[in-house]
Amino acid sequence: MPWIDRRLQARKARRERRAAGLAAAYDPGRERRAEQRARELLKSCVNEEEWAMYRDLGFLRVWGAQSRPQGARELEGVDYAYIVYPHKPIVAYLPQTGQLLNEYCVEFPDETGPYGSPRLPDSDDVLAKWMALKGDERRLISEANLHLPGRQVDTKQVQRDLWRLGQWERERLARAARTAASERSSRRAETADG
Amino acid sequence: MKFLRMRPGYGEQLIAEGDPAIADDEQRLVEEFRRQLDQGMWAAIPTAAADGRREAQMVHAFEEIPQGTGRVIFFPRAAGGAR
After folding, report:
1. Which residues does chain B have within 8 Å of residue A44's beta carbon, measured at their own beta carbons?
2. Cα B45 from chain centroid?
3. Chain B residues with CB inside 8 Å of A176's CB?
4. Strand-pair category, A81-84 with A60-63
5. Quick check: B79 and A107 CB within 8 A?
6. Do A144 and B39 touch (CB under 8 A)?
7. What is the H or E stretch that residue A16 is in?
8. Cβ burial, residue A24 (10 Å; 0-12/13-18/19+)
9. The sheet that has B2-7: what strands, in order across it?
10. From residue A168, how far is each of A79, A87, B44 by CA, in Å?
């Protein structure tokens, strides 16, 4: 039966590659450990707010460095930002209106991948995009395939994520204000006691 | 200074470490830096400003690495994704 033959041949090839030291043995926890390492690295590179955003919402917002995006004269001087998802296109949008501008489809394939897949762990993919946007936005964007919004990432999902981001920022601000107020009142109480 | 490389299925891996002020270490780091770029990697240095802002600087040659840099992160170069 051809299906069984194919499976047996693939199994034999895997065994030979393993015996020759060319392939790592199957390890079900590898991807999880890789992702944990990647999260630690990401956390050490971005600031506290960005880390909390990624941890809580699953994406990062990166502000655009050039307020004059190429090819869009009507956007001169307008602030723009990117939503960076793991292993999905980068979505550019206008924070003031929530208007989605473009999808930039970009990958970081490592063809030398020692464990078969050329895909980086999720958090490494996000960190690679973050570093490339921060370090050389123009170069990254020029390498990416440009599409209109909705090509790969559902526009409704992005709109929902932007709404979640707004809520998250408001809650964070409110929490910070409450903490500052309680610190002020405890300082006042200490001064009165002293 | 540490050179870290992102690896699929692994996370980051320490690929070289040394003190650029020591000639032997510097030579080793220079060679490793070139090897990584030859393999198609991009190199970035995460930086922290005094006001808490975090940035990243892309470097294209070993000489561009600022003094006192603690780590350089190598990752596969970007390629346009699904058409």
Report:
1. 46
2. 6
3. none
4. antiparallel
5. yes
6. no
7. helix A2-19
8. middle
9. B11-17, B2-7, B71-76, B41-48, B54-59
10. 20, 23, 30
Name the closest residue on chain A to residue B77, using Cα atoms. A108
Residue B52 backbone zone (phi > 0: left; psi -120 to 50: alpha; other: beta): left
Closest approach of A134 to chain B, Cα-based (Å)? 5
Option in B52, B76, B80 nearest A144 (CB): B80
Find residue B45's DSSP bridge partners.
B57
Mean pLDDT, chain A, whole residue set: 87
The C-alpha atoms of residue A119 and residue A113 are separated, in whole angstroms, by 8
Residue with tokens 């240095």: B45
Q: Please report how many Cα atoms fall inside a 13 Å half-sphere around the Cα of residue A190, on the Cβ side.
A: 6
* B11 contacts A38? CB cut-off 8 A: yes
Report the complex ipTM. 0.95
Q: Which residues contact B17 (CB under 8 A, 6 or more apart)?
A: B1, B2, B3
Measure in Å the smallest separation between the Cα of B44 and chain A Cα atoms: 7
The tokens 């390629």 sit on which residue?
B79
Strands A145-147 and B71-76: unpaired
At residue A147, the 3 state secondary structure works out as: strand
Per-residue model confidence as pLDDT tens digits over A73-103:
555 567 899 999 999 999 999 999 999 999 9
Per the CB < 8 A criterion, the answer to whether A12 and A22 are in contact is no
Asked if residues B16 and B46 have their Cβ atoms less than 8 Å apart, the reply is: no
Residues A25-39 pLDDT 10s: 667 788 899 999 999
Average pLDDT of the residues in B55-79: 96
How confident is residue A11, by pLDDT bands cut at 50, 70 and 90? confident
pTM for this predicted structure: 0.84
Mean pLDDT over A2-12 rounds to 71
